[in-house]
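User: Design a sequence. Structure:
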């Protein structure tokens, strides 16, 4: 029984780790994707300088 619980805890930990990795990857992707500027229509950071 103890072995079963250990395996369960191990697999649970691995699943949580994978979810955390995927979420971090998605957040990194979203942060690195440049938004389209509404002022000049080009792709650059939102708070870039305009004249
Ligand atoms: Zn712009």
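Assistant: Done.
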């Amino acid at each position: 029984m103890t072995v079963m619980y250990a395996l369960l805890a191990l697999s649970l930990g691995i699943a949580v780790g994978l979810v955390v990795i995927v979420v971090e990857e998605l957040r990194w992707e979203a942060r690195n994707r440049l938004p389209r500027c509404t002022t000049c229509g080009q792709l650059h950071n939102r708070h870039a300088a305009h004249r």
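The longest helix spans residues 2-32. The chain has one domain: 1-51.
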